[in-house]
Design a protein that fits this description.
Layout: H1 2-15, E1 29-34, E2 37-43, H2 52-59, E3 70-75, H3 87-93, E4 98-103, H4 113-120, E5 124-127, H5 131-137, H6 139-147, E6 151-158, E7 163-165, H7 180-192, E8 195-198, H8 200-206, E9 221-225, E10 244-248, E11 259-263, H9 270-280, E12 285-288, H10 292-300, E13 306-311, E14 320-321, E15 331-335, E16 339-344
Parallel strand pairs: 3-4, 4-5, 6-12, 6-13, 8-9, 8-12, 9-10, 10-11
Antiparallel strand pairs: 1-2, 1-3, 7-14, 13-16, 15-16
Helix pairs in contact: 3-4
The structure holds ligand AOF and zinc ion.
Length: 347
């Protein structure tokens, strides 16, 4: 039993290599074991490219060993023709007799059909090894398929006296609440999520690029609220450097292939409408970086999954109040000197 767990842990470790690059696909890792030895390994790198099982099978040198092997995979092998053929067929065609699955795929195109197909083909299938860890690994993918909305991370930095910015912004230099290390961490976080969102005031005040500069990785899709099209067209957010979706009450003609408008009714439930559109765009995760009002909207609608709050050393005495988040039951906390991580165990 202990060995089984180790192999699944290896699957999880391999899968994590895909953090930030597999969207809208999940991160998946796979290990093939024969006579107590790992003879093949693979992980899913990018949507449209081979799944973990394919990479694992391809890495096996002596394919004849597959007929007496066990394949471990952190997510149920797929049963459908998507951008790639079904992994179940691959397992069946190669005569792999034993399959150990971490967790069931929530994608309704699969959702148990992979396991069924393997059992019907006479495979010895075990399901649910390190299930909680396998679900946690793909928290974004699971939230997207089960709740039909992206996984939502709230991020802000506040002063010791609870402000996210002083009242009057200095024209010369921005006021930094956090240190260099936390700024770099934020860029790492950006590289891990599929999208990043800010409200109008933040876009106007900060003229942010919302890209990944202090870390290596993909730029997230930029989501910007601009109800009355107030953001100047020379703002960085209109630089066409990464895919950008502007939410407005009226779209304006803009000749940039990376920039699209989505028209919504700002007087109605804003967060819900917005998330429905993001779901339609197949966006599985979003980090909301401000401002206070935008973040508060999601808190008030109870539409968030994680909060990451930096506490700076400075005091502003007055300014823009940080969002208010009342901690309820069912939350896990992790606190370091200046960072508070809140994760909700919602099901
Ligand atoms: C697996 N192993 O490594 C992955 C799986 O369009 P496709 O063909 O890439 O299929 C995408 C779906 O396949 C994805 O939504 C998820 O349900 C499953 N992903 N399954 O067995 C993998 N990446
Ligand atoms: Zn597959």
């Amino acid at each position: 039993m202990e060995k089984h767990t180790q192999y699944m842990r290896r699957c999880l470790e391999l899968a994590k290599n895909g953090l930030g690059t597999t969207y809208p696909n999940p991160m998946v890792g796979s290990v093939i074991v024969c006579d107590g030895k790992i003879i093949g390994e693979g992980w899913h790198k990018k949507s449209g490219e081979p799944h973990a099982e394919v990479n694992a099978v391809n890495s096996v040198k002596d394919k004849s060993l597959l007929k007496k092997s066990t394949i471990y995979v952190s997510l149920e092998p797929c049963s459908h023709f998507g951008k790639t053929p079904p992994c179940c067929d691959l397992i069946i065609e190669n005569g792999i007799p034993n399959v150990v699955v971490g967790t069931v795929d929530p994608n309704k195109k699969v959702a148990g059909n992979g396991i069924k197909k393997l059992i019907e083909a006479g495979k010895n299938v075990t399901v649910g090894l390190l299930e909680a860890e396998c679900n946690e690994l793909n928290k974004r993918f699971f939230t997207f398929h089960k709740k039909k909305r992206p996984f939502i991370i709230l991020k802000w930095a506040e002063s010791q006296d609870g402000f996210i910015a002083p009242l009057t912004k200095s024209e010369q230099k921005p006021v930094w609440i956090t240190n260099t290390f936390s700024r770099q961490l934020v860029h790492k976080w950006r590289s891990e999520e599929q999208a990043i969102l800010v409200g109008t005031q933040t876009a106007i005040d900060d003229n942010p690029k919302l890209n990944v500069r202090d870390w290596t990785g993909k730029n997230p899709i930029r989501i910007v609220l601009d109800q009355n099209n107030r953001i100047a067209k020379d703002n960085h957010l209109f630089d066409n450097q990464s895919k950008t979706i502007i939410f407005s009450n009226a779209s304006i003609a803009i000749n940039e292939e990376n920039t699209t408008f989505e028209v919504i009714d700002f007087k109605q439930n804003l967060a819900e409408q917005l998330l429905n559109v993001l779901y339609k765009h197949q966006i599985q995760s979003v980090i909301i970086e401000g401002g206070s009002q935008t973040i508060q909207t999601f808190i008030d609608e109870n539409l968030w999954d994680e909060a990451r709050i930096f506490n700076g050393n400075c005091r502003f005495e007055t300014g823009i109040k940080a969002p208010f988040l009342a901690l309820k039951k069912n939350t896990s906390l992790a606190i370091t000197n200046d960072l508070l991580l809140i994760s909700r165990n919602n099901d």
